[in-house]
Design brief:
This protein is mainly alpha-helical. The chain contains four helices and no strands. It has one domain: Ferritin, core subunit, four-helix bundle (Ferritin, Up-down Bundle). Helix 1 runs antiparallel to helix 2, helix 2 runs antiparallel to helix 4 and helix 3 packs antiparallel against helix 4. The longest helix has 25 residues. It is globular and about 40 Å long.
Length: 145
């Protein structure tokens, strides 16, 4: 996988996460509505940064799909939190790969910062779901999701 392909994969993961967060607003508990708004905004900012990095790397813009298939039916706050945790883990995997494939310090820094943010958000959703441990060592490794 090249840097351009890794950036494209990260953009796709961000677009899917934005979709999941947008869908969750109808199901998430009232205590987490502000968190969802904060997290979706963070994903949009990160997607813009990725788009810029992709253009700098010589890639073409990646538009979001019209819709995405969620891994399970979203029926309430718990299923919404589970799906959002999965979205963060998917993004973390994409950033783990981006860090590995980055051919420059700027893209690598973008990947590290994004992976850190995903790990923090995933910890929130694990905590909300009562999962332990709340954090994982080396987030983004496929074997830990």
């Amino acid at each position: 996988m090249s840097t351009v392909e890794a950036l494209e994969t990260a953009i796709d993961a961000e677009n899917a996460a934005i979709f999941a967060y947008g869908t969750s607003t109808a199901f998430i508990g009232s205590a987490d509505r502000g968190t969802v708004a904060e997290y979706i905004a963070a994903h949009r900012v990160r997607r813009t940064e990725l788009d810029d990095a992709l253009a700098e790397a010589g890639g073409q813009p990646r538009p979001a799909a019209a819709g995405y298939t969620l891994p399970e039916e979203m029926t309430g706050a718990d299923s919404a939190a589970t799906i959002l945790l999965g979205a963060e883990e998917d993004c973390a995997q994409a950033y783990f790969a981006l860090i590995d494939q980055a051919d420059g310090a700027g893209v690598r820094r973008l990947g590290v910062d994004a992976l850190t943010d995903c790990a923090r958000r995933a910890a929130h959703w694990r905590s909300a779901l009562g999962k332990a441990p709340v954090t994982v060592a080396f987030p983004g490794q496929p074997s830990q999701s």
